[in-house]
Each structure stands twice: as structure tokens, then as C-alpha cells.
UniProtKB/TrEMBL annotation, chains A, B:
It comes from Anas platyrhynchos platyrhynchos. GO terms for biological process: fatty acid biosynthetic process. PANTHER family: ENOYL-[ACYL-CARRIER-PROTEIN] REDUCTASE, MITOCHONDRIAL (PTHR43981). SUPFAM superfamilies: GroES-like, NAD(P)-binding Rossmann-fold domains. GO terms for cellular component: mitochondrion. Signal peptide: none annotated. The keyword Flavoprotein does not apply. Pfam families: ADH_N, ADH_zinc_N. Residues 29-345 form the Enoyl reductase (ER) domain. It comes from the Eukaryota. It is found in: Mitochondrion. InterPro entries: ADH-like_C, ADH-like_N, ER, GroES-like_sf, Mito_Enoyl-ACP_Reductase, NAD(P)-bd_dom_sf. This is Enoyl-[acyl-carrier-protein] reductase, mitochondrial. CDD domains: ETR (cd08290).
Amino acid sequence: MVLKVCSSLGGSVLPSQPALGYGHSPWISVWLKELEVPRLGHSDVHVKMLAAPINPADINMIQGTYAILAPLPAVAGNEGVGRVLEVGPGVTALRPGDWVIPADAGLGTWRTQAVFPEASLLQVPSDIPLLCAATLSVNPCTAYRMLADFESLAPGDSVIQNAANSGVGQAVIQIAKATGIRTINVVRDRPDLPKLVERLKALGADHVITEDMLRKPEMKEIFKSIPKPRLALNCVGGKSTTEMLRHLQPKGTMVTYGGMAKQPVTVPVSAFIFRDVRLRGFWMTQWKKDHAHDKESLSSMMDTLCQLVQRGQLGAPACTTVPLEDFKEALVASTQPFTSSKQVLLL
Amino acid sequence: MVLKVCSSLGGSVLPSQPALGYGHSPWISVWLKELEVPRLGHSDVHVKMLAAPINPADINMIQGTYAILAPLPAVAGNEGVGRVLEVGPGVTALRPGDWVIPADAGLGTWRTQAVFPEASLLQVPSDIPLLCAATLSVNPCTAYRMLADFESLAPGDSVIQNAANSGVGQAVIQIAKATGIRTINVVRDRPDLPKLVERLKALGADHVITEDMLRKPEMKEIFKSIPKPRLALNCVGGKSTTEMLRHLQPKGTMVTYGGMAKQPVTVPVSAFIFRDVRLRGFWMTQWKKDHAHDKESLSSMMDTLCQLVQRGQLGAPACTTVPLEDFKEALVASTQPFTSSKQVLLL
């Protein structure tokens, strides 16, 4: 990772609220800095941020390798939850005490306080667990949309996914379980595999297999009890994805939403012609942009997800909470391989 | 090619009509044989075959590498045109003198006469050129469906395709031209390139480029006068396909219908996630199977194509006609690289 972390940067430091900024000067760096909290405008909301996770997309944005980038220097962080402290006179739907999450990427959530336009926030119930709220707006939404928008799945149908231990993967397992859809979950082999299998099964996974298993005749055993998947969710790329695709039903869809292996998706021509598989992509940020004027879709999704949380059917992924001042260790920890625990900054 | 051609095979030869049979005994072989013409059944049609092309799929079926295979030994050939000689008492829509083409793959068209069930035949106007009729049921239908079924294209929109010189490619150029859609046509570099460019432009191609051009900044020039394509048609695979995909509009569709390079389709993960490209496949045989009870779609397509032929907007590809007895030379010629001319057996 080309990411240097430094504690502070020259320039006037205002006696106000700390934030994790980043910029290129002279290398990519992240620093903790006091930022002035601006005056509350007519339609603005003054928010005390409570918790914000460190996601791979945050790191990529800091590295400058993501598809959307902020003008630098910027406050980092795309996800998180805050409590409303005060609202401007034109704010209609939010009141002090409400919990809010970002409506879109790029808000800059790694800070203790901020003033945001009302339109950039979504309300969530304040009785759900803090870590659920802090991690709700990217991964569970991605999982929800991928399960809903590409194939019309009915209870009893199955879904296959790789990177099943990722934040999205865990949300897929839980949302699928709550709706009666079976999941075949592919993970990389690792020293503590049995523990991981147990953890994913506890979340509701029907089958947990390693990438090697995808090539083996034992796969047939799985399809004696459940139908072949009509939907495959791909966050890896490379050989493992090609192997996963072989198990998709004819006319089924594979949705790519990540590329952890940093390798392209490779598909035999025959899969397109003779099995009519359909390959699509998904990016939550684009979905939100495309549905900017369709508040109903957004709020219906958030309502469903919050209800799943309230019923105990959707929990936060395994998290390690870290005080803001320990951000350096958290950033380093978030980029380690086989990290099963998401770093969440407490603000 | 693992294809042996022999002149005849032992066994009883009935004094009837010649056909090109094939089987595995002991190697894959094709032989000319007299076959008895069966008695005309209630719903049968006695057909004098007139002409039948040699398509790559025919060769693959003979080689046993195609997705549908006939029980061996079989009569080869999937496409062609014949004239009705006689009809059974239960035949309603066909009369002697009518021209017919196969409704589906696997009919066995490389023969002089045959008795077919009425349901296995489609009528075409008998005033269209023989070679058009003989080559109508696979390539022009494939081109028509791919232009119609994946993106709703309007006049002024553009399509990019590789293997633009193939039978399908030439039909795409002509059908697109007739409907006001611009085409960007990718061909392999070759000694007689200027002649090929001229020929495709005469068919209506807007741009003809080599595979190398796809990587060059000069591509930008093309997109000053026409919009980026919303549809890409892929018959190649490998690097050239990945390069073609780069020029597709966001949310555009690439349809794979062949794999001439014998290499898979390789797509960067970012194309799925950040450009939302959609990858599909098409196989005319499957479409016909899926629409077996939807005669209206089939006849509406055939009507449109025949009208284009009658108006001079859709011609046969470059063909070399060969008498049936010279089938060996025709089979060999059909598997040569850079063949710009389709071998058609005259029956």
C-alpha cells in the first residue's frame, strides 16, 4: 500500500474539531488535524459523528486509485453514523438526537463533528446497534441490491458468492437467510478455516467451501439438495471467478462488484453462447447517483435493512473499534490480508 | 482440422439420391452416399434441395465439437434452400414449387432430395436470389436478433463488431445500414486489406478498422462524428475483444456469438463496476428452441429479412458455388484462414 500516515501537517490549525485529512504532499498521507466547524446554514445539520469504518474504498480513494476522488486535501471516510446536534431553520425531516448516515459516498466521515446539508443525510433508527448503523450504508445496501435487482429469486433458490467473508458477503448471507434463499459461500483457504466456516454458518450460510472445492466433483453433492444458483456474486476475479461461473445455471447472472485478486474476469466463449450466462457489474455509488431522484427506492431499502437489524437478522460484521487518535494502527490493520475484522473509528 | 473425407463407405447403397453423410469409423469422415428417399407421410414434404452452404458450425458438428450433435452416421449440413416437389395430404401451407429453408438446425441439408416434416420447414419467396435463400436461416437471422434483442437502437446510434467480414458481420453491416445505425467494423490485418475495406464499405460499413487500431488514439477521431457504441458484437475472443470492449458506452452491452480466436473473453473488473458494461451471449439455435411456440416472432423476422433482400438491401455473402461431387475441395477450402468466400454446394 502506497500510504504514508503522518500525525500533522503545517498550516494554520484552528481550535476546533479533529478530522482525518489526506492529500498528496509530497506523498499520499493521512493526518489528524483540527478543522473549523462552519456556521450552520439554512438547510444544514450539525452532526456529532459517532463511529465510522475503514473500508477498502476509503483506502483506494486516499491512494487516488478509486473511480471517484475528492479534490485534495479532503476529509477521508465514506461511511459512518452520527447524532444530530442542531438543525438549520429550513431542515424539515431531522431533529436533534436523530441518528444519520451518509446518503452518498464522499461525505468525509472520519471526523468528530461536521455540518452537512440535510439532503446529504439519511435518518436511521437510533435504537439499532452503533456498529450496525455505522456500517449500513455501503455493504448491506450492496448485498440487498445485488440480491434484488438482477434475478428474481424465490425462497428455495440459491446464490453462490466468493469473498463470502467480506462485509458484503456476510450481509448477503444474512439477507438471503432472512428471505429463504440458500447460499453457497466461497472463501480462500486459510489456517483458521474451520473457525471461519463455523462463523459464517452461524450467520446463516448453507454451504461454505474453499476456492479449490469449486473444481472438485464433490460440488455435485451440494446440488443434490439445492438447485444450481441463478445468481453468482463476484468480488474476486481471476481463476476462482471462472470456476465459480461454471456452477451457474444456464441463463443465470454473475454480478461483479469487486476485484480482490486484482485479476480480470475470464469467461469461456462457450459459456456465453451455449449457456447464455449474463455478466453484469454493480457499484452502490452509481446506483445512488442513478436513483438520486427516486427517494422511495432508497428509503424502502433502508427501512427493510433496519427492520432486519431490529429483528436480529442482520448484524454488523466483526469489528474492531479504535479511538480516533489510534488511526495509524487502524489504517495499517485494515490493509492486512485475511483480515476478518473491520476497523471502526470511534469518534 | 481432424476431418477425413472419403468417397464412399461399405454397406448397402440404394439406387436413390446422393447425400453427404458423416460418422466416426474409425476416424471422423465425410462420404458421398446414395440414400433412399422415404415414402411421403401425411404431413411430409418432398423437397429437391437446390443449394446449401458449408458453415463453421457444420464442420464443428462433423468434428463432434459442437454443442448439438446428431446421432451418427448423419447427413451433414444445417442450412440451405430447396424447392417443394410434392406434399402429403395433411400439409396445409406449402405447395409444389414453393421454396423452403430449414426452420431449425440439424436437418441435414447437404443432399439432393429429402422428405421432411412440414413443421421443420419455413417458406421463403421464390423470387429472391438462390444464394440469399440458401444462406438466410443462420447468419442474417443471428445479425437481426443481435441488433434487435439486446439494446434498443435508434437511427444514429452505433454498433461495433469484430469479425466484420464473417457472414454474420456482413449481414450486420447491411441490416444496420438499412435501419440508419452506424457500424464500426473490426477486421484482422491482411495482405488485401484495402480491397476488403472497400468491399465492406460498399455493403454500407461506416468505418472499417484493424484490430491494432482499437488500441490507438486515432479511435477518438471516429467518435467525433458518431456516438460511442451501445452494442458490441463479438465473434473473436481474446485481446481483440477486450480492446473492443473499451470503446463501448457505459451501460452498453457486448454480445458474444463466436470465438474464432479460440481464446476466452477477458474483462477488467473495473469495466463491470465503474462502466456497468453488460456481457451476454447469443446462439440462434437456442433462440429458435426458446421460440418454438412463438411462430409470430420467427415469421416476422423472416418477412423483414426477405423484404430487405427483395429491396436489394441485404445480399448473400461472397460465395463460391461448388457441385456436390466436388465436396472434398469445398470442405478443405471452407477451413482455410482468411477465407472471404463461403463455399456453397449446388445440389
